[in-house]
Amino acid sequence: MSKVQFRNIDLNLLIPLKALLHERNVTRAAERIHLSQSAMSRALDRLRSELGDELLVRVGRNYELTPRGSELLEELAQVMPRLARLWAGETFSPAQSEGHIRLAMNDYASSVVLVPLAEICGRLAPGITLEAVPWHERFHEESGLVTTHLILSPSPVPSIFRVEPLFEDVFLCVLGRKLRHHRASLTMKDYLSFRHISVETQPNQQSLIDRPLGEAGQQRRIAVQLPYFLAAIRMLEMTDLALTMPARIAEHVAERHDLVSLKAPKEIPPIRYSMVWHPRFESDSLHMWLRETVRQIFRPAPRSEGTRRI
Predict the structure, then answer these.
(1) What's the pLDDT band for 206 if we cut at 50, 70, 90?
(2) What residues does the HTH lysR-type domain cover (predicted)?
């Protein structure tokens, strides 16, 4: 945008714009920022003219946002706090901040990342709301990525996005209570002799387990395929099926339910997760705090000075 264009922008319209998009009603928007209804109507007319979009359209007895209006509402949620901090000259303070963080991740990543992140936010940033949405391999191709602060992904993404390796985990095979296996390890022959539960949250796509098996010319027998880990774990308590899971949750499941877990065959490689974000969030202070907080979850805790190796 040129300097001339920027000088022609009336920044005073940002406040009524945010109120209108949030309330989706001229009267309520006017009350929200203490304007008269006629003044808010004039502001809406100017915004429609300046932005070249209706922003609000009548649907039945109510008003709904246009696609452009929805996009602007998401943008304003990021821009307005930045402007306030810029004007006040304040540094980011988690304890005093309010905001909404949207993360995309699968069931496993939510148990590994979201659980400790919720504890940290509750303790250090109680004004922050966390929202988790389901991740899938084509998530980065959707417009939702622009409004998603952070993605926890085990798959490659286009180079336009910022990517930072986060952690890796090996796969363990948890044996159902009725499954008889008397050795302390698993060969590929053992593994393929089992009947398996496959937890798939993405229909019609090979899993991170079946894909490398296929590349090695092997195929396991799937007895049950479902999208729910909780139901799969309960099946282990009363069947002779096997469930392959990342170690961070498999060890907990095996211990809690008194089941046996063994390392999966070497043909199934470790799973590697990265955090992914859109460049628009790169310098956002809330996002920078979020990224550093997620990093700290996976940093080993420092040993106390009094601890010595024996």
Answers:
(1) low
(2) 9-66
